[in-house]
Design a protein that fits this description.
Pfam families: FCSD-flav_bind (PF09242), FCSD_central (PF21706), Pyr_redox_2 (PF07992)
Protein name: FCSD flavin-binding domain-containing protein
Shape: globular
Keywords: FAD, Flavoprotein, Signal
Strand content: 25-35%
Radius of gyration: 22 Å
Mean pLDDT: 93
Organism: Xanthobacter aminoxidans
Strand order of the largest sheet: 5-2-1-9-20
Structural class: alpha/beta
Oligomer: single chain
Largest sheet: 5 strands, parallel
Length: about 425
């Protein structure tokens, strides 16, 4: 490594120069400023759409999968409420709108050269980079489980084959069979999702004549999102079917045995489970960690007012990979972060004042087909962090008509969200 290289990195660590680089007008040697987006999920596609509003930039989206599967709505498919086709989308609409879609895997990021290295050996230079790589799973976080064991004990925390496998295994659970879900520690993708998943599994089982099945959730957390609402719903709709094991009751998850379908806790051993759904600990997608944009937590720290990386002001990190305060890892939040990042990116490139940032997130969860609950929050930068300034949550005992309207509200949001991403 050259002395100049070391010096440059040291300078980039200075906050004054970092701020200057972010806000300095871009002077392109040729053509438009180049913005490369890595990741075609809720964050990346919303960022691409936001950037298309200004014709002064060239937008490239790097995404290896030809079809996107909306994991954030997938529990409804597990519950038999929607078809799989409602989850799957292509990138043709973005391409028609003017985004250059590169169907390649991004293997590495060279921050010195400002290049994205592709799996086929190609390189994409950028003036600004938006990273929305989602999550990686920590396969070592559950003793006895591994990448090789994800077929026997699926996680289904990403789209595609794992989701189909979990649905196939759920449909094979007999009446009276046992399902064990191992919930992840904080922070993780979509805080209510494991509990909505348990609800939709119970709905599927009960609606297909298997109401004698049992679902046990082994949780490392002493509480979870909308806990009282879920537990009220389980007692009302699925009495005796869903049991949540807090860590002080289970005495913690000890190990799993994929060969025998066994889950061992400090309190009890669950043998010959018909289905074990392991949802492990999570961290930022590998490309972000490879680029040196994650800290010791495994997540990517960001500037609360712009979503710019705290470690490189020419890179914006949005969606599940980012961590910066109170805002949860949700598809709604990723879309909100994309808008903030796009505005800050334009301001930095063209020398304008960046508007003040604000964020929002709403998560709807179905307990039955017509019983939906939600949690919402508004967020703003405060003291260097993204802080919640207003929050609302469904109330216990709400009338069925209101819960049905929330279900319709969720469906309307989903249609609008995916239309904005892919339409």
């Amino acid at each position: 490594m050259t002395r100049a290289g070391v010096s440059r990195r040291a300078l980039l660590g200075g906050s004054a120069l970092a701020a200057a680089l972010l806000c300095a007008p871009h002077v392109a040697a040729q053509g438009k400023p180049r913005v490369v987006i890595v990741g075609g999920g809720a964050g990346g596609t919303n960022a691409a759409r936001a950037l298309l509003r200004d014709s002064r930039v060239e937008v490239t989206l790097v995404e290896p999968e030809p079809r996107y599967v909306a994991v954030f709505h997938s529990n409804l498919w597990l519950g038999g409420i929607i078809d799989f086709a409602a989850l799957e989308f292509g990138y043709e609409g973005l391409a028609r709108a003017g985004v250059r879609v590169v169907p390649q895997r991004a293997d590495a990021i060279d921050r010195e050269r400002r290049e994205v290295r592709l799996a086929d050996g190609g390189r994409l230079p950028y003036d600004r980079l938006i990273l929305s790589p989602g999550i990686d799973l920590d396969y070592d976080s559950v003793p006895g489980w591994s990448r090789a064991a994800e077929t026997a004990m699926p996680h289904a925390w990403k789209g595609g084959a794992q989701l189909r496998l979990l649905k196939e295994r759920l449909d094979q659970v007999p009446d009276g069979g046992l399902i064990v879900i191992t919930a992840p520690p904080n922070p993780f993708r979509c805080p209510p999702a494991p509990y909505e998943r348990a609800s939709m599994m119970a709905h599927r089982l009960k609606s297909t004549g298997r109401g004698g099945a049992r679902i046990v959730i082994v949780d490392p957390k002493p509480k979870f999102s909308m806990q009282g609402l879920f537990q009220e719903g389980w007692e009302g709709h699925y009495p005796g079917m869903v049991e949540w094991m807090a860590p002080d009751i289970s005495d913690g998850l000890v190990s799993v045995d994929p060969a025998t379908g066994t889950v061992v806790t400090g309190f009890e051993t669950y043998k010959e489970a018909a289905l074990v759904n392991v949802i492990p600990a999570q961290k930022a997608g590998g490309i972000a960690r490879q680029a040196g944009l994650a800290d010791a937590s495994g997540w990517c720290p960001v500037d609360a007012g712009s979503m710019a990386s705290a470690l490189d002001p020419s890179v914006f990190v949005i969606g599940d990979a980012a961590i910066g305060g109170d805002i949860p890892k949700s598809a709604f939040a990723a879309g909100s972060q994309a808008q903030v990042a796009a505005r800050a990116l334009f301001a930095g490139l063209f020398g304008a004042a960046a508007p003040s940032a604000s964020y929002a997130s709403t998560c709807w969860s179905l307990i039955t087909a017509d019983d939906a609950v939600k949690v919402s929050g508004l967020y703003r930068p405060e003291d260097g962090r993204i802080r919640e300034v207003e929050g609302t949550v469904s109330a216990a005992g709400e009338p069925p008509a209101l819960r049905r309207r929330l279900r319709e509200e969720n469906a309307d949001w989903y249609r609008a969200m995916v239309a904005g991403m892919f339409g």
